[in-house]
Design goal:
The complex is a heterodimer of chains A (158) and B (283). By secondary structure, chain A is α+β, with helices and mostly antiparallel strands. Chain A has 5 helices and 5 strands, in the order ββαβββαααα. Helix content of chain A is 36%, strand content 13%. Chain A has a 5-stranded mixed β-sheet, with helices on one face. In chain A, β3 and β4 form a beta hairpin. In chain A, α2 runs antiparallel to α5. The N and C termini of chain A lie far apart (46 Å). With 283 residues, chain B is α+β, with helices and mostly antiparallel strands. Chain B folds into 3 domains: 48 residues, Uridine Diphospho-n-acetylenolpyruvylglucosamine Reductase, domain 2 (2-Layer Sandwich); 110 residues, Uridine Diphospho-n-acetylenolpyruvylglucosamine Reductase, domain 3 (2-Layer Sandwich), CATH 3.30.465; 105 residues, Enolase-like, domain 1 (2-Layer Sandwich). In chain B, strands 4-5-10-6-7 form a 5-stranded antiparallel β-sheet. In chain B, strands 11-12-13-14 form a 4-stranded antiparallel β-sheet, with helices on both faces. Chain B has a 3-stranded parallel β-sheet with strand order 1-3-2, with helices on one face. In chain B, β12 and β13 form a beta hairpin. In chain B, α10 packs antiparallel against α11 and α11 runs antiparallel to α12. Chain B starts with a strand and ends with a helix. Classes of the chains: A alpha+beta (158), B alpha+beta (283). Chains A and B meet through β4 and α3 of A and β1, α2 and α6 of B. The complex binds flavin-adenine dinucleotide (FAD) and FE2/S2 (inorganic) cluster (FES) (2 copies). Flavin-adenine dinucleotide sits at the interface of chains B and A.
């Protein structure tokens, strides 16, 4: 059963994965099977949010998600985020606000915010967006520019 | 990577049968995996077979008059997004929001939280105050237990080796509140948490406290002092004093015993006021 092939649609592309062990995480399948290195591993324990991707439009921690458990789903990573209007607006807002230094946390922030806006609608108040991003850590920026990026993204998609 | 086989049965009967055919200790159940995978990674458990509950028809949320039944595999985020939960059981909404982060709650489930029964669970204190019942399914059929009996001690439950948590039933939507104190709001463990609920049926208050050893517990002493209906400021103070005196606390790296004692009284008083006037409290 474990090695039953599974299918994912990753950034719009159908992918068929064979021989995936039962314990394999979505994070590792994306990075090492599909070569999508934009999704980062920070803590591998749910604490940092660097590994956030979208599964069927909403955010999940790919380090704590078994690939087999999302068999058949639509997965969006940072590499594909600009294909969707909301994702593209969020990406552009991080760029415009200069909301990164080393950039390691950025894919996670962009995916988490895109997921929140997908889920809660573009009218979601800023407070709620900030609250919803508390699981994402940044060691560099001090967050001020990230907060500006969030506000910019929110304006852009209104 | 931990080498285990993952099986995903499509019926509860099949899942239970799988548990029975594997040597115990080698088989585990996974829902969201946010607790289980950390245990596997840390080498605390070594399953050779893991039974995924993803195909079971238990991602449900059913209101029946004042009662709410929550399927064990419903992601916590779905519970939090239900508009009725937010309005009718505000304390439950607040407790769910206290768990981890949004992305974590898209996978984490209530069944997993109770299956683990961590002493720091944010859901157990609130569900105790709501007098929730846990519905279990095993080889000999179904049985229901009050949550207070289901949770035995830190990480110990009444769950039999071949049993699954099917759902959790809250008998009555109640004005309620869940307040916590932590160093960081997300992905941190509460130093103390207080859950409080008011029953329109009995006109009585129930109080539960989390962050106390060995596991979250009810404080009927404090609930009784609050009396019937909206409590007076004096009654709130007295209930806070009672709970503060009755509670057993420890000092650890998160907080001193003294600070925790202070928090029990303060959070309890605030929680009662919040439950009595939820609209002033919403955030
Ligand atoms: C970064 C991080 C932060 C966290 N923060 C919090 C927090 O603030 N508050 C809090 O309360 N928790 C927190 N947790 C713990 C965890 O996310 C929750 O306990 C969650 O609800 C577990 O659900 P799950 O579906 O992921 O459980 P799983 O990991 O799938 O399962 C947990 C346990 O329950 C068993 N189990 C699961 N479902 C069933 C079932 N239906 N029947 C029988 N047994 C079952 C499993 O075998 C396992 O032993 C955190 C975890 C992480 C990683
Ligand atoms: S790598 Fe997944 S949360 Fe840190
Ligand atoms: S930019 Fe370096 S961690 Fe955020």
């Amino acid at each position: 059963m474990t090695s039953a092939p599974l299918t994912l649609t990753v950034n719009g592309r159908p992918e068929r994965l064979e021989g995936v062990p039962g314990g394999e995480r979505l994070l590792d399948a994306l990075r090492w099977r599909l070569g999508l290195k934009g999704t980062k591993e920070g803590c591998r324990s749910g604490d940092c949010g660097a590994c956030t991707v979208l599964v069927d439009g909403v955010s999940v921690l790919s380090c704590l998600t078994l690939v087999h458990d999302v068999d058949g789903s639509r997965v969006t990573t940072i590499e594909g985020v600009a294909r969707e209007p909301i994702g593209n607006a969020v990406r552009a807002a991080f760029d415009r606000a200069g909301a990164l230094q080393c950039g390691y946390c950025t894919p996670g922030f962009v995916m988490a915010l895109t997921g929140l806006l997908n889920e809660r609608g573009t009218a979601a108040p800023l407070d709620e967006l900030l609250d919803g991003l508390q699981g994402n850590l940044c060691r560099c920026t001090g967050y001020a520019a990230i907060v500006r990026a969030i506000a910019l993204a929110q304006e852009a998609i209104r | 990577m931990p080498p285990f086989d993952l099986v995903a049965p499509s019926t509860p009967e099949e899942a239970i049968a799988t548990l029975r055919t594997r040597p115990s200790g080698e088989v585990r159940v996974v829902a969201g995996g946010t607790d289980l995978l950390l245990d596997v990674d840390a080498g605390r458990i070594h399953p050779t077979t893991v039974v995924s509950l993803r195909r079971l028809p238990w991602r449900t949320l059913d209101w029946n008059g004042p009662a709410l039944t929550i399927g064990s595999t419903l992601p916590l985020r779905a519970l939090e997004n239900d508009p009725d939960v937010r309005v009718r059981i505000p304390g439950l909404y607040q407790a769910v929001k206290a768990v981890g982060s949004v992305a974590l709650r898209h996978r984490a489930t209530l069944g997993g939280n109770l299956g683990r029964s961590a002493p720091a669970s944010d859901l157990i204190p609130m569900l105790l105050a709501l007098e929730a019942e846990v519905d279990l399914l095993g080889p000999d059929g179904a049985r229901a237990l009050p949550l207070d009996r289901f949770v035995k001690a830190s990480r110990a439950t009444e769950l039999g080796p071949f049993e699954l948590i099917r759902s959790v039933r809250i008998p009555e939507a109640r004005p309620s509140a869940y307040l916590w104190q932590r160093v960081r709001p997300a992905n941190d463990i509460s130093q103390i948490a207080v859950a409080i609920a008011y029953s329109p049926r009995t006109n009585g208050w129930t109080v539960a406290v989390g962050g106390v050893p060995p596991r979250p517990r009810l404080f009927p002493e404090a609930g009784a002092v609050l009396g019937v209906g909206a409590p007076t400021p004096e009654a709130i103070q007295k209930a806070a004093d009672r709970a503060t005196r009755a509670v057993r606390l420890v000092s650890d790296r998160r907080a001193s015993e003294e600070y925790r004692r202070h928090l029990v009284g303060t959070l309890l008083a605030r929680a009662v006021r919040a439950a009595a006037a939820p609209e002033e409290f919403h955030r």
